[in-house]
Write a structure and sequence with these properties.
mainly beta; six-stranded antiparallel barrel; 20 strands; about 45% strand; elongated
Amino acid sequence: KFSAQRSTVPPGTIFLRDVGWIDDKKDDDWGEIQGSPDDQMLLAENDDVYVQISDDHEVAVGQLLTIWKPLRRVGSGDAKGMLVSIRGTAKIERVNPKTRMVRAKIIESLDVIERGAKVGPVGRRFDVVAPVTSEVDLEAKILASVYPYQLYGQHQVVFIDKGEKEKVKPGMRFFAIRRGDGWQKTLKNAAVYTDKRSVVQDDRPAEIESTPKPADDDKLPDETYAELRVIRVREHTSMVLVTASTTEIERSARLISRKGF
């Protein structure tokens, strides 16, 4: 879901409201809500919470942390990550450096918050940068999207399996391409007579024939039907925005970036 505040946010800013992406647990998981002085199970805006911060992260009074819970893991090998449900934002008010326990106030709640929720710097605001020329030929695939759709369109955010280690950089463009006869591809699970047609030149009633077989896909050119632009790069994954599409992008889409474009 996207939103913008005209008076304070520059044009081209994207907000991820209630779903985010992490791909490095050490960098993104800073601690856990372990209690609250309030005598209620479900916590919300203006409630205070106690957060245990892990040893490898430093926090300070006034710092904002995103509250989140894991949804599902996607990908494999180096190109993997986790979609997370963003529950709200907490502002640190007190820090005990010995116990690494902090007291924080929930200043935003998008959903109910419970003990056990994680905290960390999950990115939610991104600026759409100007396109840049690709330095490499690269092919990528879609790992997941902000929302669990099977088809994606313009202005949607998806995550791909290539990142900084593969020389991806913000502003780099990927193009969704395919080849073949579009209508013939829709017949894969169609009824038995879907590819039949009437023989109008025949005087006999109800005479039918099969439609001509499609050409060999390998002999047909690639067709570009969507453009995606990188807005954030991690080590082996990237967040990209669909900037243009003539038709829906499937989860199995072939995405390419060409050197010099």
